[in-house]
Automatic annotation (TrEMBL):
Belongs to the histone H1/H5 family. HCT subfamily. Might have a role analogous to that of eukaryotic histone proteins. It comes from Hymenobacter nitidus. This is Histone H1. Residues 58-83 have a biased composition (Low complexity).
Length: 89
């Protein structure tokens, strides 16, 4: 749960900068908000990767005999091309 705590702390730490930027039009606070949002994005990606790895390792531990998820649907066939218009004489 360490990542979750970091996520909450980061969001709470940005609150005052959001208020300063949006309510008081402080551009320096906007820079801090943008920096914090980039950190939030990176932390979110780390958490997503961790969750996916945990799910995959749990699936591997269940064994190969377990039913796999249905394969993804294939993309729809592209629409037929329209015939070129006839040339005028």
């Amino acid at each position: 749960m360490s990542n979750y705590s970091q996520l909450k702390d980061l969001v709470l730490s940005l609150e005052s900068d959001f208020e300063k930027f949006y309510d008081k039009q402080n551009s320096a606070a906007g820079t801090r908000v943008r920096k914090g949002m980039q950190e939030l994005k990176n932390l979110a990606q780390t958490i997503r990767t961790e969750v996916q790895n945990t799910k995959n390792s749990a699936g591997d531990a269940a064994g190969a005999g377990a039913a796999k998820a249905a394969p993804a649907k294939k993309a729809a066939a592209p629409a037929a091309k329209k015939a070129a218009p006839a040339k005028k004489k």
